[in-house]
Amino acid sequence: MTIAARVMMMHQGGWDEILIFVGPVVIIGLLIYVARKQVPTTPEEDDQDTV
User: Fold this and answer.
1) What pLDDT, on a 0 to 100 scale, did the predictor assign at position 47?
2) Which uninterrupted H or E stretch holds 4?
3) Which of left, alpha, beta for 13 (phi over 0: left; psi -120 to 50: alpha)?
4) d(CA 11, CA 27)
5) What distance, in Å, lies between the first and last C-alpha atoms of the chain?
6) Distance separating alpha carbons of residues 38 and 40, to the nearest angstrom
7) pLDDT truncated to tens, each residue of the chain (51 aa)?
């Protein structure tokens, strides 16, 4: 079996393209989730305008 035939056999199905797209999306989503979880929650200070 030639190298070109092996590449064609590995490329069938499209699942690898799905992983190439979903992998980074999941990683970025997890990073955003962790970053938002670490931010301390403070009450809104916009309502207390003292001039």
Assistant:
1) 57
2) helix 3-11
3) left
4) 24
5) 80
6) 6
7) 688 877 766 666 777 778 889 999 999 999 999 999 988 877 665 556 555
* CA separation for the pair 3, 51 (Å, rounded): 74
Residue 25: per-residue pLDDT: 96
* The token pair that represents 27 in the structure block: 């990683």
| 3-class DSSP assignment, residue 6 | helix
Instruction: State both tokens at 16.
Output: 């690898």
Tokens of 3: 């190298």
Among residues 16, 20, 23, 21, the alpha carbon closest in space to that of 8 is found at 16
**Amino acid identity at 11:** H
